[in-house]
Amino acid sequence: MLKVENLHAGYGGAEVLNGVNLEVKAGTVVALIGANGAGKTTTMRAISGMVRPSKGRVLVEDLPVEGLAASRIARLGLAHSPEGRKVFGPLSVEDNLLLGAYRHLPHFLGFRSKAAADLKKVYDLFPRLEERREQLSGTLSGGEQQMLAIGRALMAQPKVVLLDEPSMGLAPVIVQEVFSIIRRLKEAGITLLLVEQFAKSALEVADYAYVMERGKIAVAGTPEELRKDERVLAAYLG
To answer: What pLDDT sits at residue 106?
Structure first.
C-alpha cells in the first residue's frame, strides 16, 4: 500500500532523513517511534509532500508520488493528520470535516448532500463531534480537536492515513481515549502509519513497528520482537 525507499529530506541545507526505508501493508497499523529529533515528523511530511525529498521514492499502491505537490498526493489517497492537530479554529466542526471531503466530491452542486454519508461514518465513530457539529473548532478541548483532525482525514476516503503524534499535549485519560479510537480504526481495516511519543501504547496497537535514530531506521520488527530487543527496551520501554 505504502512504500518508502531510501528517502532523504531536510530543511534548507540541513539533511534530516538519511535513507529511510519502510512499508505499510494494506489494512495494517505500523508505528514509527524514536526520540525527539530522530526524524519521525520529517518522514511523515516528506511522504505527504509537505517537504520535498532530495532523494528516494515514495509509492502509494506502487505509484511513485515523491516530488508531487501535497494536494496531488492527497488526491491519490494519502491523508495526513499532522502533529498539533491543525484544525481551523474559526470554522465549525462540520465545516472542518467537509474540508476533508473536498478532494473526492463535486466542488459546487451536490457537495453537502454527497458528503452526508461520509459525515455519518465520522459521527458514528465520534459521537461527540456530532454533538458539537455547529461549535467553533477553536473552542473544543484538545482531545476533541484530535478527534476532529482524525475525522477530517477520514472524510477524504483515504487509502492510507498518516497520524502524527495524536497524543501530544493531551491528559493521560484523553490519551487512553485516543488509542481506543486508533483500535477502532484498526478494526475497521483502515491503513495507518502512526508516529507516537508513547512507545508502549503504540506497540500495543501496531502490527509492525520501526524505530528511528538520527534520520534512519535503526530497528524494525513486530511489537513482540521489539519488546525483546535490549536496545528498544532500554531506550523506549524501560
So the answer is: 57
Pick the CATH number of 2-86+158-237 from 3.40.50.620, 3.40.50.300, 3.40.50.920, 3.40.630.10: 3.40.50.300
Whole-structure pTM over 0.70, yes or no? Answer: yes
- Res 111: pLDDT: 62
pLDDT at residue 108 is higher than 70: no
Q: How far apart are CA 29 and CA 232, in angstroms?
A: 19
Rounded Cα–Cα distance for residues 103 and 94 (Å)? 16
- Which one has a higher pLDDT value, 105 or 128? 128
What is the strand order of the sheet 14-24 is part of? 14-24, 2-11, 55-60, 63-64
What does the block give as the cell for 219? 530497528
